[in-house]
Amino acid sequence: MAKIIGENISNIPWQEKPEGYKYPVWRYSGNPVITRDNLYMANSIFNSAVVPYGDGFAGVFRVDVMSRDHTLVVGYSKDAINWELEEKVVFRGYDPRLCLIDGKYYLSWVNLTPHGTTIGIAYTTDFKEWTQLEDACYPVARNGVLFPRKINGEYVLLIRPCDRGHTPYGDIFLSHSKDLTYWGKHRFVMSPVKNWEMTKVGAGPTPIETDEGWLMFYHGVLTSCNGFTYAMGAAILDKDEPWKVLHRADCFLLAPHELYECVGDVPNVVFPCAALADAETGRIAIYYGAADTSVAMAFTTVDETIAFIKEHDLLK
Ligand code: BMA
Question: I want to staple 49 with a disulfide (CB 3.0 to 4.6 A). Which of 96, 197, 207, 282 is the partner?
Answer without folding.
Answer: 96
